[in-house]
Write a structure and sequence with these properties.
Blueprint lengths: L4 H21 L8 E6 L19 E5 L2 E3 L3 E5 L6 E6 L8 E10 L9 E7 L5 E4 L7 E8 L12 E8 L14 E6 L10 E8 L3 E7 L7 E6 L8 E7 L6 E5 L9 E8 L1 H6 L6 H17 L1 H46 L1
Length: 348
């Protein structure tokens, strides 16, 4: 059967259009919003991780976690039934932030992996439990780096899956969070010895929560998911891991080195047009619309004229009051002077 070149061309055009839509869905919507980042020492971690008293001023660790001051923070060893955690001591008080973590997941098993590890931004902190080493019924965001599927799914494992906890909903172990997932992706983040594996979680209040991953090449980031959610005020940052019946090593590794743990947290300064719209941004669409309104007012000058006219009104009112008071004072002085002159004439 002879092919119709016109139909083939149309098919290719359609495929290109579909590819373009998919590419557009993966565009980074937060990058144009951010003007600069400011490091937060209170929520960052680097070697040697502890002081001479084997403590850290800003971080706590517990469970089966082990601190190697020259190498890494290991949340679990390659043994069954392990659970460890690492939590920041202070709440994150800034509204817009970015957290960079470089991690390494490795183990002796070739086919069957451990449970996984979790990245937490929640109201509570440092409580061990059944969800990747931390508590269930949490309030905030939990991002699960799951290496083992407990049931059949249409997607593959390892899997990164996010859940927004309301304090009332339990994590679904049997279905690997499938029912409560607000965003996720299948990504082989395990055993990347040649390329450091990284996770970057960015939150702009009223606009989006975004997770990026680097697993294949240095400085090549993939957007795992982006969604608009409201997180608790002043949450805590934490990491936990559990091995279950089979095991993996879970190591938080430094931002720039594969051998040293590093957690880098930043406060985000938004560009002026987005700063102006932040108070009106209750959703992603509202935020974009507010930014557009601010930009339109800037070009037309209407916004500036309204502010200026209000200021001029108060200024003129104050000037009028001062003028009236000055006139009254002048009139009183004139009357007194006239009376004094009249008295002097009568005296002579």
């Amino acid at each position: 059967m002879r092919r119709n070149p016109t139909l083939s061309l149309l098919s290719l055009t359609a495929l290109a259009a579909i590819a373009g839509v998919n590419a557009a869905e993966l565009e980074d919507s937060l990058a144009p919003v951010i003007e600069r980042t400011v490091p937060l020492r209170t929520h960052s971690l680097a070697a040697p991780y502890v002081d001479t008293d084997l403590q850290n001023r800003w971080w706590d660790f517990g469970g089966d976690a082990i601190i190697n001051t020259n190498k890494h923070v290991r949340l679990t060893q390659d043994k069954p039934s392990q659970a460890g955690w690492l939590w920041a001591r202070m709440p994150l008080s800034v509204s817009n932030w970015q957290i960079d973590v470089e991690f390494k997941v490795d183990g002796k098993a070739n086919n069957i992996f451990g449970d996984g590890w979790a990245f937490w931004v929640t109201s509570d902190r440092a409580k061990q439990g059944p969800v990747f080493g931390s508590v269930d019924w949490f309030k905030g965001i939990g991002i699960f780096f799951d290496t083992y599927a407990n049931s059949k799914h249409a997607y593959t494992f390892p899997r990164v899956s996010a859940m927004l906890g309301d304090g009332k909903t339990s994590y679904d172990h049997d279905r690997d969070n499938e029912g409560n997932e607000i965003g996720g992706c299948s990504e082989n983040f395990r055993r990347r010895g040649d390329v450091p594996t990284k996770a970057r979680l960015t939150y702009v209040k009223g606009r989006a929560l975004q997770l990026k991953l680097q697993t294949k090449k240095s400085d090549e980031w993939k957007i795992c998911f982006e969604t608009n959610v409201d997180l608790p005020e002043s949450p805590y940052i934490g990491f936990s891991a559990a091995t279950g019946d089979v095991s993996d090593n879970h190591e938080l590794v430094p931002f720039l080195s594969v051998c040293i743990v590093s957690v880098n947290t930043y406060s985000l300064t938004l560009k002026p047009e987005y700063r102006a719209s932040k108070s009106n941004s209750n959703s992603k669409s509202d935020g974009k619309q507010a930014a557009m309104n601010a930009d339109t007012n800037g070009r037309s000058g209407k916004g500036r004229r309204e502010v200026k006219s209000g200021g001029d009104g108060w200024f003129m009112f104050i000037l009028k009051v001062i003028g009236v008071l000055a006139f009254i004072a002048f009139a009183v002085a004139a009357v007194k002077t006239y009376n004094e002159q009249q008295k002097s004439k009568r005296h002579w």
